[in-house]
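**Archive record**
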Amino acid sequence: MALYEHVFLARQDVSAQQVETMVDQYKAVIEGLGGQVKKVENWGLKALAYRIRKNRKAHYVLLNLDAPHAAVAELERQQSISEDILRSMTIRVEELEEGPSAMLQKRDRDDRDGRDGPRGDRGPRGDRGPRRDRFERGPRRDAEFGGNE
């Protein structure tokens, strides 16, 4: 059997429990046609790059499959009929990744990052030191025009 990575996007107004129900339904389709679901990763509700059918966010789910082509074709057919699925993509791979995918590793890295924001604890001015306004520097001297004295 062939190995596939399948990602689908569910509408933002679908609850996380309904997404899990969809995953169980699609697992049953794959297993009913002789395949196996090796791994399921729910990446959560994420912002879309552009609006899809009036949705700005979507629930992302990854399925690693070891299944015949007929099972994957049936999965894609059922997802194309469903109104809750915005997009799906299936890619045939040589081998399936062990451990968490890159998306989950990124989320774990972001969770471990103890900083408050993108600048961390450097403060509002970064590491450039305290802010000095022009009037604190004194008058400007222009050698060309004789200076400000």
User: Anything to note?
Assistant: The beta strands are 2-11, 36-52, 55-67, 85-93. The two ends are 86 Å apart (CA to CA). The chain has a mean pLDDT of 83.
